[in-house]
Backbone:
């Protein structure tokens, strides 16, 4: 009799639990369904965005590749300008356009484009500093030595991506200004600077020897 009673009580208890579970599911089940839908929908949206960004990047790359196809530098510059690329990602295109203009002999336009890029805080520093350095190299001695030195000053700060190259060019500008000792003061540290490439060190050593100085690292 006891076993029968216990079995009956267990069945009733199980039914009560099942009934309570069904009521909870009817009341709150939509939350779980909504959560699943949100997860699935979010994953689908993320994948769609990635695919869209990938497709846009591929299209932009194809357009740039096509713009670089013409053999004539002037045509390449015009094709790159026609792309109308703007925003932070436009720096490489602007650099390519300026290089094409320079190759086509349009030095002033190329220098203006480099100057615009260098002054645009919306671009990463590496692109701005590279544009500023390229402008100085492009204009060379057509720029007053003082203007070259001033333009290169921000590029020689510690941690700047093209610090050693800018320092080398500053030394050349000081030499053009007749400031030999100042130039040597910039050149000597480059011989042992860990960021200086072997090619740069060799150029510095040759210049110092030409100036009648010993080039010892």
Residues:
């Amino acid at each position: 009799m006891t076993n029968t009673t216990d079995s009956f009580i267990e069945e009733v208890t199980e039914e009560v639990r099942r009934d309570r579970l069904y009521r909870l599911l009817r009341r709150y089940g939509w939350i779980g369904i909504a959560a699943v839908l949100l997860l699935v929908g979010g994953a689908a949206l993320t994948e769609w965005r990635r695919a869209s960004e990938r497709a846009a990047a591929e299209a932009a790359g194809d357009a740039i590749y096509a713009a670089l196809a013409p053999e004539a530098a002037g045509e390449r510059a015009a094709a790159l300008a026609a792309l109308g690329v703007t925003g932070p990602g436009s720096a490489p295109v602007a650099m390519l356009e300026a290089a094409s203009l320079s190759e086509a002999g349009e030095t002033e336009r190329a220098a203006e484009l480099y100057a615009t890029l260098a002054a645009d805080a919306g671009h990463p520093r590496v692109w701005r500093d590279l544009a500023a350095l390229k402008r100085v190299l492009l204009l060379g001695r057509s720029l007053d030595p003082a203007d070259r030195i001033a333009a290169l000053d921000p590029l020689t700060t510690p941690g700047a991506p093209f610090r050693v190259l800018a320092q080398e060019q500053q030394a050349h500008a000081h030499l053009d200004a007749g400031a030999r000792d100042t130039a040597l003061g910039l050149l000597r540290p480059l011989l042992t600077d860990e960021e200086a490439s072997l090619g740069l060190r060799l150029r510095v050593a040759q210049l110092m020897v030409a100036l009648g100085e010993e080039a010892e690292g």
